[in-house]
Specification:
Blueprint (H helix, E strand, L loop, with lengths): L9 H16 L1 H10 L1 H37 L6
Amino acid sequence: MLEGHPSVRSHYKDYLEGLAKEMFQDKTFMENLKIIDAKDARAIEHLAAGKKQEKVRIQEQERIQEQTHSMTRDRGGLSL
């Protein structure tokens, strides 16, 4: 949601993620929101996950880069 807006300062991102976490922890609120507006409920869930998902995504990218580098350097485990 905020990724498309690079001008948004990290302070505001942190504030919105914190607010989303508070709303996400209120199960009654989230259940009602899912009934009323499922799209907004998913947006709150996405923001609440925020940095954790970003960290996992970065780790996955690093793993893929390392694997690709290893494959090009080592002939991918194939013997000649």
